[in-house]
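Per reviewer request, we include the raw input and output of the structure prediction for the construct analysed in the revised manuscript.
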Amino acid sequence: MEGVARGQRRSRKIVENELYVADCVRFMNQMPDEWVDLTVTSPPYDDLRNYNGYSFDFESIAAGLWKVTKPGGVLVWVVGDRINGGRSLSSFRQGIHFQDIGFSMHDVMIYQKKNTPFMRSNAYTNAYEYMFVLSKGSPKTFNPLKEPTVRNGHEMVVQNKGPDAKNNKVLKELKKEKTLTNIWSYAVGFGGTTKDKIAFEHPAVFPEKLAYDHIVSWTNPGDLVFDPMCGSGTTCKSALLSNRNYIGVDMSSDYIDIARKRLGQYDGTDRQMALG
């Protein structure tokens, strides 16, 4: 991937499976309309981190994401709120704005952090962020992640009560698997978020497994996954390892260098799951 930025200066042609140093709003304006199957990204919300001086123009980014998303495509927006005497609720305002410009709020999911260390003096320890699952129309793909059920096979189960309030039972089959809930839990920090030490040169890394789980849920192999604020390249690495194509963009050449090193561990032919 060496020389991507130089190549971009020579030609404005945007190709898949590349990382670009660019302002994401300008970059999306140059992208073909309705090209992206899935975006997984975490914005620099509420100025909680210094991302090498990055300026966050939310409304322009939202408009760009609407432009590049295919009909039936999905946007996963991983976001939290500043907590300083109370929650800012900027995440809610962003979710409503996405609805205002045409996206559907397909689901509000929770990213639960298993081992968050930050306690609060006058409230319970915050251990989650939102994962807004936004879609352009009805999602064209859903490959639900499943887990084993405790009980399965045929047994008598309670049917809806009638006017007599009796617990009438009928014979039904209990499945061997069930779809996961919309609360996903991940360990954070080295070994949980990732084993790539270099990734932590970025100030805010979200778990590789989180990106991977969304990618395999909302896309199929060969689809295009986009991250307009790709930072250390977590989404792009997860796309590579799940046999999806990717495009990653970040204003910081330092962060793109980190992402190139992470993706450079793989030659593009061996894409077996190797996260964490």
